Amino acid sequence: MLNMILIWISTRCVMKMSLYTSVFCGTIFYSFSLQAACVTPPDCADLGYTIDASKCVGAALKCPWDLTKAACKEKEEIKIGSYIYSDMSISNKVIANKTIIAIIADTSSRLAISLNIETSKKGTETDTFCKNYTTQGTSAGSWSCPTMNDLQLIYNNKSILNDSLHNAGRPRLNGEDNIDPVYGNNWRYWSSEMDNSGYRRGMLLGKGNITSFENTWPGYTIPVRKY
């Protein structure tokens, strides 16, 4: 009888210890699992994913734990002064063996100016000139003469545009490279607009003066287009 009691007590103790051991081991396993789940992944930039994925052009390899970061060729930022080429690609650089046809003058209105600034055109000639203007990659009718608002945007960004023109080997706006014998460096640039008296509106681009001129007077014309 005594032996049976001892066996029963021993069995109960073993079962109780086994239960405690199971709970203890389970707690340790859970703790290890929790630690493993909270490990901070490597920084994407440290692994070479340094580009904003939305700015990628062509193939892109994205960071596995942050899909907004990628390893790729970054798309160039389109900005005032960027070049438009005859294949309609845009770059901030002068690219050898490619033909520049325009320079971006304003990004909000998507305004671009021609590299060729026609000089000494009468007001009566300017509309026809702009309408028929062509370049490699563009056709007649895709360019126009600037509105007064266009001229204002060109004036506002003149310094940047002049840098781009100069880097492309073209004369700068406002006679910075060729001083006019009459107007100095405050040249008259024609708009496409006429006032109520039949005079053509224009701007003296050196100082930004807006006024109207006799339509038979000579001036300067910048063909413009939307990109």
Approximately what portion of the residues adopt beta-strand conformation?
25-35%
Largest sheet: 5 strands, antiparallel
Q: Helix content range of the residues, please?
A: 25-40%
**Total count of helical runs of at least 4 residues:** 4
Could you give the order of the helices and strands?
Answer: HEEEEEEEEHHHEEEEE
User: Termini distance?
Assistant: 103 Å
Strand order of the largest sheet: 5-4-6-7-13
- Taken from the alpha-carbon principal axes, the silhouette is elongated
Describe the structure.
Helices cover 29% and strands 28% of the residues. It has 227 residues and is α+β, with helices and mostly antiparallel strands.
Question: How would you describe this structure in keywords?
Answer:
5-stranded antiparallel sheet, 227 residues, disordered N terminus, alpha+beta, 4 helices, 3-stranded antiparallel sheet, single chain, elongated
Summarize the structure.
The chain has 227 residues and is of the alpha+beta class. It has helices spanning 2-37, 123-132, 148-156, 158-167, and strands at 51-52, 56-63, 66-74, 83-85, 90-91, 100-106, 111-114, 118-122, 188-194, 200-204, 209-213, 218-221, 224-226.
